[in-house]
């Protein structure tokens, strides 16, 4: 495809810039009513960005198009902007581009040779739009996944805080529902903390724990075994009646893995 043809198309888009924007707004009815909201919320100028994307696509500036798609993906993810709007907007850019390319070819009364050029351009433009969308959604998804992972780790840390009492004693208060996912995260964290902080006695307080199902009780025993293997003493406090019943019904015995006390206050008094 000749550079001259591409330059003529680019110039045509520039000359018809205002008409391009108006056509784009009419193609994306839902987005057009939200343009000011998106600008205010995310500092994203949709019309300016659409013009940039259109030129990248027509001029086949693939690297810049991909890079811009990634930047846009992060921006929309950061500000939690609606993905449906972005999808509608990009498809509106595609339709608007084709409208103006049609107008351009009508104006220039294309020859057979130019018609082949046009069909080559058709394939490339559609490929470039898809390239933009793919990179946008991948970067949007990666950013959101990283955010979720970060929040998940934060929740894990908050849901299993290990509180040092002195150089060798720490308290682990467990609050709320203890499910399989949480008990697995707890196992790794407890053993890592015992190792890094040289904890010799860990007091696990269950007075705030809602419940433990049988499969979780088996996993909990594994944690106690791991604590014991690391030369650390485990003490259980605050066992509630429902958890005691589940332990008894499960037939799981803690053997010599753990010492059981009534309350956290009583245990702390004894050890301090």
Give an overview in words.
The protein is of the alpha/beta class and 272 residues long. It is 71% helix and 12% strand. The chain has 12 helices and 5 strands. The protein has a 5-stranded mixed sheet with strand order 1-2-3-4-5. A hairpin with a 4-residue loop joins strand 1 and strand 2. Helix 6 packs parallel to helix 8 and helix 7 packs antiparallel against helix 8. The longest helix is centred in the middle third of the chain and has 48 residues. It is rod-shaped, with a radius of gyration of 31 Å. The mean pLDDT is 84.
Distance between the termini: 83 Å
In round numbers, the mean pLDDT is 84
**pLDDT < 50 stretches:** none
Helical segment count? 12
Strand order of the largest sheet: 1-2-3-4-5
- Give the biggest beta sheet: 5 strands, mixed
Strand percentage, roughly? 5-15%
The overall strand count is 5
Q: What form results from the Cα inertia axes? A: rod-shaped
Order of helices and strands: HHHHHHHHEEHEHEHEH
* Rg over CA atoms: 31 Å
Helical content, roughly?
Answer: over 70%
By secondary-structure content and strand pairing, the structural class works out as alpha/beta
Short characterization:
With 272 residues, the protein is α/β, with parallel strands linked by helices. It has helices at 3-15, 17-27, 29-32, 35-42, 46-58, 62-78, 83-108, 112-159, 180-197, 214-229, 241-250, 264-271; strands spanning 163-164, 169-178, 201-212, 233-237, 258-260.
């Amino acid at each position: 495809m000749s550079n001259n043809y591409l330059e003529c198309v680019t110039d045509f888009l520039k000359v018809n810039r205002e008409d391009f924007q108006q056509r784009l707004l009419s193609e994306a009815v839902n987005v057009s009513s939200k343009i000011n909201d998106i600008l205010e919320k995310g500092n994203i100028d949709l019309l300016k960005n659409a013009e940039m994307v259109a030129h990248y696509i027509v001029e086949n500036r693939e690297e810049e198009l991909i890079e811009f798609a990634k930047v846009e993906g992060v921006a929309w993810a950061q500000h939690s902007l609606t993905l449906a709007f972005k999808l509608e907007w990009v498809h509106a850019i595609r339709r608007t581009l084709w409208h103006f390319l049609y107008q351009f070819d009508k104006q220039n009364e294309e020859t057979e040779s130019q018609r082949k050029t046009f069909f080559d351009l058709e394939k490339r433009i559609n490929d470039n739009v898809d390239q933009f969308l793919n990179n946008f959604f991948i970067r949007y998804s990666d950013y959101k996944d990283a955010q979720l992972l970060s929040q998940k780790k934060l929740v894990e840390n908050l849901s299993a805080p290990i509180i040092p009492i002195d150089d060798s004693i720490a308290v682990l208060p467990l609050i709320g529902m203890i499910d399989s996912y949480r008990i697995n995260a707890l196992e790794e964290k407890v053993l890592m903390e015992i190792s890094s902080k040289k904890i010799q006695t860990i007091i696990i307080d269950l007075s705030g724990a809602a419940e433990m199902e049988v499969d979780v009780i088996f996993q909990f025993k594994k944690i106690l075994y791991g604590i014991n293997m690391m030369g650390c003493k485990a003490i259980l406090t605050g066992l509630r009646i429902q958890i005691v019943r589940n332990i008894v019904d499960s037939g799981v015995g803690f053997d010599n893995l753990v010492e059981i006390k009534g309350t956290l206050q009583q245990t702390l008094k004894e050890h301090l």
